[in-house]
Amino acid sequence: MTVLSAILRPGQKTAAIDTAGAFSRLLGRWDARIAILILALVGAAATIAPLITMDPDLPDYPKSLMPPDSVHLLGTDEAGRDLLARTLWGAQLSLGSALLVTVITAATGLVLGVISGCVGGVLDTVVSRLVDVLLGLPGLIVTLGIVGLLGPGFLNLIIAMSATGWAVMARLARATSRQTMHQGHVRAARMAGASLGRVAFEHVLPAAASGVAVVATLGIGEVVIALAGLSFLGLGAQPPTAEWGTMLADARQTLAYAPWQILGPGTGLVATVLAATMLSEALRDVTSPGAGQ
Q1: Alpha-carbon span 217 to 106, nearest angstrom
Q2: Strand pairing partners for 76?
Q3: Is 29 a domain residue?
Q4: Cα 125 vs. chain centroid, distance in angstroms?
Q5: Are residues 261 and 255 in contact, defined by beta-carbon separation less than 8 angstroms?
Q6: Please, are residues 72 and 83 in contact by the beta-carbon 8 Å criterion?
Q7: Which DSSP symbol is given to 67?
Q8: What letter does residue 29 receive in the DSSP assignment?
Q9: 16-50: pLDDT as tens digits
Q10: How far apart are CA 180 and CA 14, in angstroms?
């Protein structure tokens, strides 16, 4: 999640984002509407997967590597498992995990950034230096190191990505918090006797949350592709779990004579990342300075 680190430097001020206006402008763009529709369809398919498909991990070896037909619309894999079922269940795991990582990193960065920006002092220095260290290191290398310590597994992969992705959010939240703390209405509230905690919760947190939400949305596509890529390398979901990256790793072994195995997870991954990227670009445009003028 490197979107913000390329545009926001330490100590740089950032303006609060007009969330309502940005959302209205976003819905006015055709590319954003298409992206939202694609993501909604993928999300709906993942949600109803348990209702319309069979067990994705149930092997049926006599039906191994069957091409697509009226019963198995995407064919079967080397264990005879239905690839449509595995693709839909894989969407549930891939999208759900990406959203979980995004929520964890956004919440962690928001809380630490607001506390750091409001309290200042030694705490601010410690948080800022930790953020600088994490942003100065390649995020993928740090994630690989954590997974190496914890061991392969999808839960460990989620923990590793959550442990490294919050720094960008924290920097944005801190910058917004320090700017908000110097605004007239916040100073007036402090002079009137409002506690620091109340000011932070009622004034600073909402201002920082809007910007963090935008940046978190910008990074969803990166999280999806990172989770799938590391699972493809065997560091995430383990067989027989249905997950797009793992399914693609299995499909490469039989690609020469059973190419239909890549259709489901490949199409789902490309469509999701493409839609997330389109939405990110549209969101970046409508939230940029002067976009509403």
Answers
A1: 10
A2: 82
A3: yes
A4: 28
A5: yes
A6: yes
A7: P
A8: -
A9: 455 566 677 878 888 889 999 999 999 998 888 88
A10: 10
- Tally of domains in the chain: 1
Side chain identity, residue 237: A
Cβ-proximal residues to 92 (8 Å cutoff; 6+ apart), any chain? 46, 47, 49
State the first-to-last Cα distance of the chain, in angstroms, to the nearest integer. 29
Q: Which domain holds residue 181?
A: 19-64+71-287
List pLDDT tens digits, range 60-98: 889 899 999 988 899 999 899 999 999 999 998 888 899
In a domain, 216, yes or no: yes
Token code pair at residue 200: 């932070």
Residue 14 domain flag: no
Could you tell me the CATH number of the domain that includes residue 225?
1.10.3720.10
DSSP secondary structure letter of residue 54:
-
Render pLDDT for 205-233 as a digit per residue (tens, 0 to 9): 888 888 888 888 888 888 999 999 999 98
Cα 31 from Cα 282, distance rounded (Å): 7
Q: Which residues make beta-bridge pairs with 82?
A: 76
Task: Name the phi and psi angles at 235, rounded to 5.
Answer: -100, -10
Tell me the C-alpha distance between 82 and 53, whole Å: 9
* Alpha carbons 36 and 26: distance in angstroms, whole number: 10
